Structure formats: structure tokens, C-alpha cells
Amino acid sequence: MNLGETQIEAGPLKFALQYRKEIMTDQGVCIQVIGQVNGEDEEILRFDCFDQTPHYHYGTQKKNERINLDKTTTGNPIGWTMDQLRSRLPEMVRRAGYDEIADQLDNFKLASLVGKKLDEVEDTAREMASGQRRTVTHKRGDEVFNVGNVRFGLEFRELQAANDRGLAIHVLSDVAGQEIELLAFDCFERAPHYHYGPRNKDIRIYWDTTLVPDTLEWTLNQFASGNLPNLIERAGYPGIVAELDKDLIISKVKDEIAPRALEIRAANAK
Asked: Of 25, 86, 133, 158, which residue is the least packed, with the fewest Cβ within 10 Å?
């Protein structure tokens, strides 16, 4: 069990926090509730307040019961977690299998001490969420096509460190006077994936190449079929969506961008 480096003592418990971004498809704040069992730290509860699949665990070193959160009904995962810690902590500790620690939390003085520390836990968690987010900045592309209020940048990328290569398509626009990458499609040979909001939340989706053997064709079809507004909406830029010229985008993709993208890929084939 790896404990978060930021630790807050609270009577019979300790809260450990860390920002997890090594999971390439997700990221977010991890809040661990730690208790002493036979003189050793033991993780009683863990709340993984992730962007895509937020969830929590009861008794990770006993039964490790995992329950997923529905963000539509629970709202912000950190806010939901803090609500539970303030209102249902003894009950959750008991369900995790730690009756003795739960009994201590039923003590008014200890409960008050833990409650005071939860403000510090929440402040720390929210600071981590805003300050440690993983984002990525790509080049804009070697060839850029202007299409109304968006641009498509084409670039053949050679990633020696990752032993990967392939065509990348960058979807760009101006946000508050600055060019921002809204979407990125890395149609690589080994680990193809795409990004929603690389400079925002950097949500990464890896293609299943058994189902999508040609990721470049798939990407171009998303543009040509008129799905770009939905992609940009999910990336977090509804203002850009409202100004899109959808017919122009479809025409430009079919007549210029798709043929050129396929040409660049063919020229770099091994």
C-alpha cells in the first residue's frame, strides 16, 4: 500500500492525499483514510476522485469492495467525498470492517477533532486538483488548414522514446485570444489514442485496434460525418461549437484535409 505523501493527522485516523496522473486514461485526487491496526498503518477507505471513473473502496486490505460513482447524480467527486466523510464516516469505517476504530469515532470529542481536520483535507484536495493536473502541449502541426473558427493541423510524429510513430491531427481554435488545441488524434502504429482538451482536462482514449484497425480513417470519418461539434463539446469548449460552420468543415475535410492526411501517411509508410 502506497500512502499519499501529504498526510493529515486526525485523532484515531490519518488522511493521506496524492494526485494520481500515472494512469494514462484518467487522473485525479486520491484521498486515503488510514487507521492503526496492530501498530501498522492500514488503508480503511480510499476515494479515487478521478475525472472519468471516480470510485471508492471499502477495506482495501481486507475485502477491497469497490463502488463506482455516477457523476451525473453525485456531482463533483471531491465535493461528494467530503460530504460523506463529514456525515457518514463512522458508518463507512464500520462497513470496511474496522469496528474498533468506528467505535472511537462515535466518541464526541474525537469526532469533533476529525471534523475540524476535514476542512484541511478538503482545502488540500481542491488545491491538488487545480494545481497538479496533467496536461499536454503538442505542436500545432506542419500543415494547418483554416476552416472557419477552427484549424486542422497535420503532423507526422516520430516518438523515439515511446517507439511509436504515426500521423497526428490537431484541432485548434482561438480561446481568449490564444490558440488552444481542442482535440488531438494520435493515429500511431503501436498505441494510437486521442485527447479531449489536451490543455484542459486531457482526457485520453485509447483505440481498440481490433475494432478500429485504421484509426486515421476513423478520425477522418468523425469529421466528415459531422461529429466534430460533439467532440469539441466534450472537450469543454461549447463557445467554439456555437460558431462552427459545419457544412464548411465537412466539405473541407472531404476535399482537402482527408486526402492530404492519407498522402502524408503513405509517404511515411515503412
From this structure: 158
Distances 198 to 138, 144, 236 between C-alpha atoms, Å:
8, 18, 11
The pLDDT assigned to 1 comes to 61
Joined grid coordinates for residue 48:
479515487
DSSP 253: I
Q: How far apart are CA 39 and CA 236, in angstroms?
A: 47
The answer to whether residues 113 and 11 touch, using CB atoms and an 8 Å cutoff, is yes
Query: Once rounded to an integer, what is the mean pLDDT over residues 223-233?
Result: 96
Q: What is the pTM of this model?
A: 0.70
Tell me the pLDDT band of 10, cut-offs 50, 70 and 90.
Answer: very high
CA distances from 58 to 50, 55, 92, 259 (A): 17, 10, 7, 53
Q: From residue 88, give the alpha-carbon distance in Å to each of 5, 62, 91, 186.
A: 25, 20, 5, 44
Q: 146 has which bridge partners? A: 151
Please report where in the chains the cell 497535420 appears, as a residue.
Answer: 154
Asked if residues 99 and 105 have their Cβ atoms less than 8 Å apart, the reply is: no
Q: Which pLDDT band holds residue 253 (cuts at 50, 70, 90)?
A: very high
Contacts by residues 99-102 (CB-CB < 8 Å, ≥ 24 positions apart): 101/12, 101/13, 101/35, 101/44
Dihedral of the CA atoms 19, 239, 221, 155 (nearest 10)?
-60
Grid cell digits, residue 248? 464548411
